[in-house]
Amino acid sequence: MKLVYTQENRFDVSAMRTYLESHGVPSFLKNEFSSSIMGEVPFFSVWPEIWVADELFEQAKRLVEEAQSDESTASEQDWFCHTCKENNPATFELCWQCATPLK
Ligand SMILES: [Zn+2]
């Protein structure tokens, strides 16, 4: 597992998780309730963290960067199909040639 995103705002973290999952990247949340159980706990105590499997880290990192770049300046990168080696646009979630999922 690797840490891919952490933010003091739980709602931002939650939104990021949803974003990752919508792109086929399952994630694991740590410290989800640490800042909210008592309501009075300082924000900086422990931030919620999004962790992903090692093999999904690069993809997750890219998605996080895309989400943070506010799409206007999104630097979308092409990806290469691991089955047929075809080059695919970043907007494709399946290989256009052989339909292998990006992940
Ligand atoms: Zn392919």
What features would you describe in this structure?
By secondary structure, the protein is α+β, with helices and mostly antiparallel strands. The chain has two domains: 2-68, 2-Layer Sandwich (Alpha-Beta Plaits), CATH 3.30.70; 74-103, no CATH class. It contains two helices and five strands. The protein has helices at residues 10-22, 57-68, and strands at 2-6, 28-30, 49-52, 79-80, 87-88. Strands 1-3-2 form a three-stranded antiparallel β-sheet, with helices on one face. Strands 4-5 form a two-stranded antiparallel ribbon. 14% of the residues are buried. The model has no long low-confidence stretch (mean pLDDT 84). Bound molecules: zinc ion. The site of zinc ion has 8 residues, from loops.
